[in-house]
Give the backbone structure.
Amino acid sequence: MKSFLKHGLLMAALVASTQAGAQVTFYEHDGFNGRSFTTQRQVRNFERFGFNDRSSSVVVLNDRWEVCTDVRFEGRCVVLRPGRYASLSAMGLNDRVSSVREVEHTARYDDDRYAPQPVPVYDNHRRRNERLYQANVTSVRAVVGPPEQRCWVEREQVSAPQQRGGLNVGGAIVGAVLGGVLGHQVGGGRGKDIATAGGAVAGAAVGANVGRGSAAAPVSRDVQRCETVPSQNKPEFWDVTYEFRGQEHHMQVTTPPGRTVTVNRQGEPRA
């Protein structure tokens, strides 16, 4: 059975495990970037670990944690459910966390004590006595933002009005279709959409010259041209395909993998 880890904007549905301990990881920058600090026990003062007032995003595993703006769990405190919090700014905690502690299983809080619902997170920690294997990675695709359109104006010479503007309209349409098919063949995933659009533009330019006859003296005009290009942003995540015991699996990770990934006997990824 295929194992799919959906992005949620990034990973899969929460998988709880009684054998995996509660854990919280703080990151120095938004989007889980920069230095990180991980703990499985309460921390009364982040200063001891050089991470006081540095947290901008956080990942919580398997249980609730209470984070506070002052040491010894004082100041403003917010309860975090298991999941991924890409930014602490919305809850007024960016670069303000000074202490953290795990919440008792039986503890009950009013809704206003909780942070907004996080993005689900997949717990890939090794379970007790679990045997691990290496699975071969078969493909990796970096997923970035949507493609961007860039436009510019340039001066071009065209023939005087003749044969409907001197351009073979039928040739332009055929060229666009052929270019689109070519782009579709060489692209893949989101890259396929980009290649298809680029191919159509190139095809149209070539096709416009097919069947062009003699023309009068050329004249100049301003023409706006546009092209679709890949996003210049860094990848949001990597979509990974790997094979284990004859089954194809997919997962999405925040960093590019190596040639193999660690899995359990069911092919589920493990750290």
